[in-house]
Amino acid sequence: MGILKTIKRKTILLSNLFSKNFIIKDKNIIITGSNSGIGLELLNKLSRENNIIALVNKSLENINYKKNIKIIQNNFENLEFDETFIEELNDFKPNILINSAANFGPENQSLGDINFKDFQKIININVLAPLRLIQICLRSNNLRQIMNITSGMGSLTNSHDGGYYYYRTSKTMLNSISKNIAYDLKNKRINLFCLQPGNVKTKMNSSGIISAEFSAQKIINILGEDNSNFSGKLIDINSKILNW
Q: Is the pLDDT of residue 25 over 60?
């Protein structure tokens, strides 16, 4: 199994060896979940030449502090968005919002073990918090791009097994909301990308094939291209349109 993973990883890296890497400059960017995984790698790359609000829940130990990074702790589990928090985001005048934060939930998510309080917390983090942040960021009239990070586990077309009700359902809901919002924002020329990042090795997915750093750069490339043909579509890191 380890050999197969290595082969897959090398094949992916080789196929992208000569692809163009974009650099995004002089933007105001909000990144959620920016203390680990893809969110942290996006923070590390985008903070080089942009102003960042890094939204985190608890741990700050992985973040390298810079003067152009403002770190705000917020608990999405309870949808805590007070007026001070909302004003900070409005005053920042974000151009790009990246909804990267997610919670997988407990390992045991079988049909007979669903705890609806825990289920609601996962929906709050993975679905309703991104939706609320989009609402808030639209107020300043500077928002041009939204990147919602979803998962293959949220796909209806490619779902071939059961279980994992909290995470699967929340990502399916995020997909649906993303498509709906893209329609509403089309006339405002705001692109919303719903991206399936691939089998990324993170804290939530220790068996992943590609690195969070690799996935983050591919996400930046999509933002750099800013192709409206992909707005409201489910895409992978190579801009391939996928079935919902």
A: yes
Residues forming beta bridges with residue 51, ordered by sequence position: 28
d(CA 235, CA 213) in angstroms, rounded, equals 18
CA distance 173 to 209: 26
3-class SS string, 179-201: HHHHHHHHHHCCEEEEEECCCEE
3-state secondary structure of 163: coil
Please give the Cα distance from 131 to 134 (Å, whole number). 5
Architecture, CATH, for domain 2-242: 3-Layer(aba) Sandwich (3.40)
pLDDT at position 16: 57
Residue 44, classed as helix, strand or coil, is: helix
Does pLDDT of 201 surpass 80?
no
Residue 84 is inside which H or E element, if any?
Answer: helix 83-92
Task: List the structure tokens of 15.
Answer: 């196929």
**Structural contact between residues 127 and 60, judged by C-beta atoms closer than 8 angstroms:** no
